Amino acid sequence: MTTKRILKSIFPAVYGLIVYATIRLLQDTETGFHFWVRPMLLTSMEIVLSIVVGYLNIYMINRVCNLNDQRQSAYKLTSSLLWREILTVALLNTITVNLFFTPLTAFTGDGLSWADLASINVVPLLYTLIYYGVIRSGRFLTAYVQHQLLVEKLTTDQLETELKFLKAQYHPHFLFNALNTIYFQMDDDVPGAKKSTELLSSLLRYQLYDQQQQVSVRQELEYLENYIQLQKIRASKKMRLTINFDEKLADQQVYPLLLLPLVENAFKYAGGKYVIDIVAKATADGILFKVYNDIPGQIKPSDNYGGIGLENLKRRLHLLYPGKHRLVAGAHENSYIAELELKF
């Protein structure tokens, strides 16, 4: 038996003795009498009954609280139910005390006086209400904490479900483009088609990992390099692509697939002089990722982020980096610039 269980089992006895000692102290102070000069048998009977009443009171208080908590969570107890519970506890205490002590006091010593009756009822009731207040407060606190944990768990589960849904939406568009590229390579460039298949396999393997877990920036940038290689195969030969990844970016942790939509958007809108610049550099407390691409003069992409991929990116950033990200994107003359800053 653990120390906690031992203390819990003997507490009602201590509680009963404290109540008895308080009653005797009040009565002896008033009368000038000393209870230890009374017959030992009478004192022993009173002590034993006090211990019994202590166990009964503690049991009844916990029983009443348990019954109400089973009907309704302690966190949601209304004031009317609470007052009813307090009155029930007080009534049960009064019945128990008078059932044991009133007859004993009436048929021993000087009989039952109004002072005796007041002490027998008021002192135990006071201790009962104090104990009840402590117990109910503890139950309120426990129920509140459990409620908050449940709310957080439900919120976390909901966010994880939403994140998985958002991640899954990347696959169809990306997979369609990659398979389309491989399809056209099969006729004229079988070795190239094999290489593209290897790249696609590597990309899909990365995307199938648990995307709720963070990865190193190095892994994310390697993924982007493979993606860019696959996109270059189907891109115009006029394209001038520049990639500059800061060597300081290595083991810093970041959520995956957040940079992909910006690169994907650049290849999608590339035109004009077909210039694409992709830069990733370390900042004092995170990473700055910048993508520049020329666009056809006759096409003006919206300054607002449109398309499912970029809308998903905004939502994922809001969920994964609340207050720790900055996303700026828009058209400037014949170019489109997107900047994403993440703070670790």
UniProtKB/TrEMBL annotation:
<feature type="transmembrane region" description="Helical">
    <location>
        <begin position="81"/>
        <end position="101"/>
    </location>
</feature>
<dbReference type="Pfam" id="PF06580">
    <property type="entry name" value="His_kinase"/>
</dbReference>
<dbReference type="InterPro" id="IPR050640">
    <property type="entry name" value="Bact_2-comp_sensor_kinase"/>
</dbReference>
<keyword id="KW-0812">Transmembrane</keyword>
<feature type="transmembrane region" description="Helical">
    <location>
        <begin position="39"/>
        <end position="60"/>
    </location>
</feature>
<dbReference type="GO" id="GO:0016301">
    <property type="term" value="F:kinase activity"/>
</dbReference>
<keyword id="KW-0418">Kinase</keyword>
<feature type="transmembrane region" description="Helical">
    <location>
        <begin position="113"/>
        <end position="134"/>
    </location>
</feature>
<keyword id="KW-1133">Transmembrane helix</keyword>
<feature type="domain" description="Signal transduction histidine kinase internal region">
    <location>
        <begin position="161"/>
        <end position="238"/>
    </location>
</feature>
<dbReference type="InterPro" id="IPR036890">
    <property type="entry name" value="HATPase_C_sf"/>
</dbReference>
<dbReference type="InterPro" id="IPR010559">
    <property type="entry name" value="Sig_transdc_His_kin_internal"/>
</dbReference>
<protein>
    <submittedName>
        <fullName>Signal transduction histidine kinase</fullName>
    </submittedName>
</protein>
<feature type="transmembrane region" description="Helical">
    <location>
        <begin position="7"/>
        <end position="27"/>
    </location>
</feature>
<keyword id="KW-0808">Transferase</keyword>
<keyword id="KW-0472">Membrane</keyword>
